[in-house]
Amino acid sequence: MSEVDxxxxxxxxxxxxxxxxxxxxxxxxxxxxxxxxxxxxVELPEDDAxxxxxxxxxxxxxxxASSPVFAPLSGQxxxxxxxxxxxxxxxxxxxxxxxxxxxxxxxxxxxxxxLLNAEDYEDFIA
Length: 126
Hints:
alpha+beta
């Protein structure tokens, strides 16, 4: 059974989202990292890049597959987790903490309504 953090929101593409003011911190869920297996590389997005909701932001590579990471909201990248350059396995070991991938300043708070709460995400992956 995958761990689902009750404090976070989720997408159907298995990204988790932490909303603080108008900034969204984004990573992949425990379910997603379990499915991928040992993560070997995280292609981080460029600082200041702008994305629409659902756009592909970056890619995660594992021993099993390569998987896209999508923007859960429209906005601009304001920070990337450069620690993942040296330690991509942090996504496996601490996906909801040290394994975060990027932070974006979002432009449309109404898009948050489309995200899943923890209970709905648990139902979705069941």
